[in-house]
Amino acid sequence: IFCETEGDYSALVRVIGRVFSNAEALMKSFRKDESNATGNLESSQVTCGDNQKKQTTDKMGASSAATLPDEGACEMSNLCNVTVDICAVRRVYDRLLAIDQVEAALVNALIYLSPNVELDLEYLDAYETNPDYLNVFIIVMENSNLHSPEYLELALPQFCKAMSKLPVTALARLAKLWSTYSLPHIRRVMETFQQLITFTIVSNQYDDENLVNDDDTVVTATQCLKVVFYASIQGGEVDTENNTEDEEILHGRNSDDLTLHELLGEEQLYRKAPPVEILAKELGVRPIDSIKPLIPFEEFINESLNEVLEMDKDFTYFKVDSDIKFSFQSCPFILSIFTKSQGLYYDNRIQMYSERRLRALYSLVQGHEPEPYLNLKVRRDHIIDDALVRLEMIMENPSDLKKQLVVEFEGEQGVDEGGLSKEFFQLVLEEIFNPDIGMFTYSDETKLYWFNSSSLENEAQYTLVGLVLGLAIYNNCILDVHFPMIVYRKLMGKRGTYLDLSDSHPVLHQSLRELLEYTGNVEEDMSLTFQISHTDLFGSPVFYDLKEQAEQIPVTTENRQEFVNLYADYILNRSVERQFTAFKKGFLMVTSESPLKHLFRPEEVELLICGSRKLDFEALEKATEYDGGYSKDTRIIKDFWETVHSFGEEQKRLFLQFTTGTDRAPVGGLGKIKMVIAKNGSDTDRLPTSHTCFNTLLLPEYSSKEKLRERLLKAITFAKGFGML
């Protein structure tokens, strides 16, 4: 008040400089009243990490709501064993940041503070000596102007470097505290680190000699962003209970046996699993546990970083030099699915090279002819039988699956450059998903397949389906399969729950939700018991007891949640346990040693296998090549693209299905498809044809644009497509 009255803030600037530039002084500032803190703790019934915030702030924009006191954080800081009065810090910042002279003092203080804090943490174990040292970081991060250029150039980079020196226990406490913040406040923290990363990248030039991995500012800001990432998960809706361990279905080698890689000193390059994320372990929560984070996962992706990242180099650091070189694959949340798919591609290719090399060495020692590829010779009219026979042979030596797949159709000439493998996948899936076989049920409402709990087929056929999905990822193919998301969640280690029914069994989900929300007398009005029924393959009723003596246990208001949980568990887990276990076994035979589970979330695994429904036909046109005399300037080609661009959404999907075998785009979009349009004779009444295995459209040179449109529409409308890219 004195400074405002006098119009002279020099005294305030000196105080701010002394306090905010000294870790000891800052750590002891803004302390909570111990008596009030105790009272708040006793009166609150929530625990650290719960997200108890006023819903009104969620309806506000980040810019307006972020300036309001975060009452949840003020209370929750007690429960996170934090001694800072966060509301007091925010009130002070609101006053100080309105004064220009003070802003400059805060910047200079942070520049002086950060190197000293870094030294304290690295050499003096400051946090272990006094856990209140975390207060320094809590107070500084409440400055809502950290994203401004004055901080981005020097102060914030140095502060991130200091923050990266915090031990994992301190980072976990910070994540727990931030998880209690309102959405506008935690988003501001996230945007602060994101803006620093982007600002640094656009201000520098990166190449093979100057990698972004060597930029301390980008690296440490990413590590700080990781804390916000886990805070967002913990503060949202999570399920940490319904987990499954990967079944002991893959008979591994004896741990005492040495592999050739170990004998050659190359075991690091071919290690089987990525390092454990220690912050996730400390918090007891993983990305797969997230049902709905506070901040959508997509907002953590930094496009500027993805554009300059040399993925081949980053992959090497991830697999080999992770202890001395930073890899952004250790923070996969910041990478786009396309960038991560490149990392998976390099991993797959190294495994293929490794297996080919091992086979050559073993063959040399044993005097056998080397078999560097996974050769599949099948008959078109017995494709499932032949594939199952080959599967039995592979089971004896699963490492064969790490070889590059080469398919040969008996009685046909042709070298597999990818097209024959693609056709093999297509034919296998078309046969297995045939309703007459009865392995899967199909829902006309959801357009999705689900495991048939009454199927009479043996486990080997389900293992084959899992193998096909795994091989498709391993060999960089896209499949036209339609599973609900719970299938991918289960593959990644989760059990199905009531929430998953909304996708896989929407009618049942709606019925169970009505049961949970019913306000009348559940027992008298609904007359349900813990015995349920469904129809088998032949339409006969099958009864199942969710509990012992289920028929005598009525469903009541008190136990209806238990009934719903058990019902969902039966439908999604127990009833299809035999089928899904075999299916997962096949999938893991291919993917268990890859970083798939570390890099990708379930929805991203679906995109890897099935592609995206977002279609950019402008990108497809730019990437298309021409053959047989056609070029992009040929009249009919111009007419063709004008016609395709005029199609509606459904017609575009039909065209894509007709030409490539699926109505979805691969990871990275339609621009990643190498489609070829080849001339197929002069004007004719014949319809266009396609080779989906090679993404090739055979297009006659029709005499008019109208005829082209009529012939093309007829071809894509009446052609039956079931395939992949």
UniProtKB/TrEMBL annotation:
Region described as Disordered: 37-64
InterPro entries in alphabetical order: E3A/B/C-like (IPR044611), HECT_dom (IPR000569), Hect_E3_ubiquitin_ligase (IPR035983)
Ranges annotated as biased composition (Polar residues): 37-50
Chief subcellular location: cytoplasm
GO-annotated molecular function: ubiquitin protein ligase activity; zinc ion binding
Domain of life from the UniProt record: Eukaryota
GO BP, sorted A to Z: animal organ development; nuclear receptor-mediated steroid hormone signaling pathway; positive regulation of macromolecule metabolic process; protein polyubiquitination; regulation of circadian rhythm; regulation of primary metabolic process; rhythmic process; system development
Alphabetically ordered keywords of this record: Biological rhythms, Cytoplasm, Metal-binding, Nucleus, Phosphoprotein, Proteasome, Transferase, Ubl conjugation pathway, Zinc, Zinc-finger
Ranges for domain HECT: 397-725
EC number in record: 2.3.2.26
SMART domains given in the database record: HECTc (SM00119)
Catalytic residue list: C693 (glycyl thioester intermediate)
GO CC aspect terms: cytoplasm; nucleus; proteasome complex
Catalytic activity annotation: S-ubiquitinyl-[E2 ubiquitin-conjugating enzyme]-L-cysteine + [acceptor protein]-L-lysine = [E2 ubiquitin-conjugating enzyme]-L-cysteine + N(6)-ubiquitinyl-[acceptor protein]-L-lysine
Alphabetized Pfam families for the sequence: HECT
Compartment(s) where it occurs, according to its Swiss-Prot or TrEMBL record: Cytoplasm; Nucleus
Name the record gives this protein: Ubiquitin-protein ligase E3A
